[in-house]
Write a structure and sequence with these properties.
The chain has 88 residues and is mostly helical. The protein is built from 3 helices and no strands. Helix 1 crosses helix 3 and helix 2 runs antiparallel to helix 3. The chain is flat, with a radius of gyration of 16 Å.
Length: 88
């Protein structure tokens, strides 16, 4: 295999592991949010919050990802987050 390709793939693997750790950290907090929402009798789904997050991330984006790509990625994150809160 090409050495440059192998090096780039190793960099991607390292980044993927960091993303995984950050997602796991996020989901731990999501679990706590779910507990609090349950105690406060608040709905798990908060579309206004989701839109705020997308807006904030879009404004901080360097442009490597389009808004549509951000929405696609974070829709999956939101879906998993809501599932964790519901299962709690």
């Amino acid at each position: 295999m090409n050495k440059r390709l192998k090096r780039l793939r190793l960099e991607i693997d390292s980044i993927d592991e960091k993303i995984l750790k950050l997602l796991e950290e996020r989901m731990k907090i999501v679990n706590d949010v779910g507990d609090l929402k349950k105690d406060l009798d608040i709905s798990v789904e908060d579309l206004n919050r989701e839109n705020q997050i997308i807006g904030r991330l879009t404004s901080h984006s360097s442009g490597q990802l389009t808004e549509r790509q951000l929405i696609r990625i974070f829709s999956a994150v939101f879906k998993s987050s809501k599932q964790i809160q519901r299962d709690n």
